[in-house]
């Protein structure tokens, strides 16, 4: 038997309802805050991701699904949505429509990471991006949105971690100070960090290897190097969050794994998923639009790990499967022929209706209805056909009512809605 690709997964009925519930909750919230959906391709030229995410990141170095197509163009299955949204923003000159624009994307992303709980090679993100505002209010608004979404979904075991990475004016001095600090502790660093030390020293700060953690414990703090603008920007983000009662932790070691960030970055973290603690992550990326050939446009955004969020919500809540409101048990061909049209009409009226087209006995149909958790069963056998009256059984109270065939669909619509 041919099996799934490792790290990929099926989302089966039973689980899908939960995904739909999460997606709807997120979409309702996004809509209220003026986000418009944008649908971007699943593949892009490799160069787009390499340049935006950064050549020295784990994603670009070792996790992308990249291959030459038949003409030799290098293509990559998107590992994230931000780069593509920026490309579309520039390509379609969306900036000419309104100075501030908000977009959302929902869909699969691909990274060839080592699969484990909460980490897949095809995973889904719910992504939000805001273009055209450098205001710290927008960063705070995004964290507030994530906080609201978690609350609406009943997720309590989460904390917002925030940090600021400074800007091109103040970060280089910090980078240098950190580089010097790390070069004095080279022997303590893992092989990855030894490599990162020169090319991307900030990444050493969030290495999970205990020896590296110890080595950076006394590292200089980026906040001591902030320029005045970065300092007030980050301060305003914090004030806005506090004013809106959004709980957060300032995490000076938070750096994120993508190179495009400037100033505010954040993650929603949980202890519910073992090693995969980030349910969502994002931040400001003021230089990316320009770097990819667009006008100088500040931007900020986040992506939620849909799979991870679904796992947490599933652990908190029960079944999301929608049970039938009505199960039609028709006994024999004549009864089937009489009731079939009713099932179509009720379904078209939005009532969740299930009909058994088999020759099963009434007993086994009732068993099936029970297993499906149907709220009511409409029983139509030869006797009911003779009397032109169906029996409607409430599966919870076991009370049975007689419903005349004449006007049956309308009276069921009234009863079941
Ligand atoms: P990211 O932190 O790489 O950021 O991914 C965002 C979220 O996607 C993570 O917090 C995690 O929940 C989920 N995720 C990432 N990799 C996997 C995986 N292999 N399996 C399951 N879930 C995963 C970004 O992608 C940025 N584009 C976010 C952003 C938008 N920044 C600004 N705008």
Summarize the structure.
Helix content is 38%, strand content 22%.
Count of domains = 2
Overall, the morphology is elongated
What is the third-level CATH name, the topology of the largest domain? Answer: BirA Bifunctional Protein, domain 2
Main beta sheet, described?
A: 8 strands, mixed
Mean pLDDT, to the nearest integer, reads: 95
Q: Which range does the strand content fall in?
A: 15-25%
CATH architecture of the largest domain: 2-Layer Sandwich
CATH superfamily of the largest domain: Bira Bifunctional Protein, Domain 2
Lateral strand order in the biggest sheet? 1-5-6-11-10-9-7-8
Bin the helical content: 25-40%
Bound molecules: histidyl-adenosine monophosphate
The radius of gyration is: 28 Å
What distance separates the N and C termini? 45 Å
Structural class: alpha+beta
How are the elements arranged and paired?
Elements (H helix, E strand, L loop, with lengths): L15 H17 L3 E2 L5 E3 H8 L4 H6 L2 E3 L5 E4 L4 H10 L9 E10 L11 E10 L4 H17 L5 E7 L6 H13 L7 H9 L10 H6 L12 H16 L4 E3 L11 E9 L7 E7 L3 H4 L7 E7 H11 L9 E5 L2 H16 L4 E4 L5 H10 L4 E5 L1 H6 L1 E6 L5 E5 L3 H9 L1
Report what the structure shows.
With 417 residues, this protein is of the alpha+beta class. The protein folds into two domains: 15-170 and 226-317, 2-Layer Sandwich (BirA Bifunctional Protein, domain 2), CATH 3.30.930.10; 326-412, Anticodon-binding domain (Rossmann fold). Helix content is 38%, strand content 22%. The chain contains 15 helices and 16 strands. The protein has helices at residues 16-32, 46-53, 58-63, 82-91, 136-152, 171-183, 191-199, 210-215, 228-243, 288-291, 306-316, 333-348, 362-371, 382-387, 408-416; strands at 36-37, 43-45, 66-68, 74-77, 101-110, 122-131, 158-164, 248-250, 262-270, 278-284, 299-305, 326-330, 353-356, 376-380, 389-394, 400-404. The strands form three sheets. Strands 1-5-6-11-10-9-7-8 form an eight-stranded mixed beta sheet. The chain is elongated, with a radius of gyration of 28 Å. The chain binds histidyl-adenosine monophosphate. Residues 80-82, 111, 113, 119-120, 123, 125, 127, 129, 257-258, 278-283, 285, 301-303, 305, 307-308 line the site of histidyl-adenosine monophosphate.
């Amino acid at each position: 038997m041919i099996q799934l690709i490792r790290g990929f997964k099926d989302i089966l009925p039973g689980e899908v309802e939960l995904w739909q519930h999460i997606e709807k909750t997120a979409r309702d919230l996004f809509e209220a805050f003026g986000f418009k959906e944008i649908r971007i391709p699943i593949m892009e030229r490799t160069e787009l991701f390499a340049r935006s995410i950064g050549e020295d990141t784990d994603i670009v170095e070792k996790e992308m699904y990249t291959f030459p197509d038949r003409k030799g163009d290098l293509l990559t299955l998107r590992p994230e949505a931000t780069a593509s949204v920026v490309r579309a923003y520039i390509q379609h000159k969306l900036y000419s429509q309104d100075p501030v624009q908000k977009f959302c994307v929902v869909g699969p992303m691909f990274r060839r990471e080592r699969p484990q709980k909460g980490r897949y090679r095809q995973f889904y993100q719910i992504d939000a991006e805001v273009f055209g505002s450098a205001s710290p209010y927008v960063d705070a608004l995004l964290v507030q949105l994530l906080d609201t979404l978690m609350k609406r979904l009943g997720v309590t075991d989460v904390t917002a971690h925030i940090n600021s990475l400074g800007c091109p004016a103040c970060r280089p001095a910090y980078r240098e100070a950190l580089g010097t600090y790390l070069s004095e502790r080279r022997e303590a660093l893992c092989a990855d960090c030894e490599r990162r030390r020169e090319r991307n020293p900030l990444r050493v700060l969030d290495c999970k290897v205990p020896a590296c953690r110890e080595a950076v414990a006394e590292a200089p703090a980026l906040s001591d190097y902030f320029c005045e603008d970065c300092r007030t920007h980050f301060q305003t983000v914090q004030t806005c969050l506090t004013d809106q009662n959004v709980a957060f932790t300032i995490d000076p070691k938070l750096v994120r794994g993508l190179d495009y960030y400037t100033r505010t970055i954040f993650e929603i973290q949980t202890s519910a998923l073992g090693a995969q603690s980030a349910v969502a992550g994002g931040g400001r990326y003021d230089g990316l639009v320009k770097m990819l050939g667009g006008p100088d446009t500040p931007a900020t955004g986040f992506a939620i790990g849909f799979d991870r969020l679904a796992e947490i919500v599933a652990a908190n809540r029960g079944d999301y499967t929608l049970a039938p409101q009505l199960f039609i048990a028709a006994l024999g061909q004549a009864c089937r022929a009489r009731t079939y049209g009713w099932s179509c009409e009720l379904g078209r009226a939005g009532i969740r209706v299930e009909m058994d087209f088999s020759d099963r006995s009434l007993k086994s149909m009732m068993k099936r209805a029970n297993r499906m958790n149907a709220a009511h069963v409409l029983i139509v056998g030869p006797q009911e056909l003779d009397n032109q009256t169906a029996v409607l059984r409430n599966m919870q109270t076991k009370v049975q009512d007689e419903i005349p065939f004449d006007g049956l669909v309308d009276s069921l619509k009234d009863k079941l809605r």
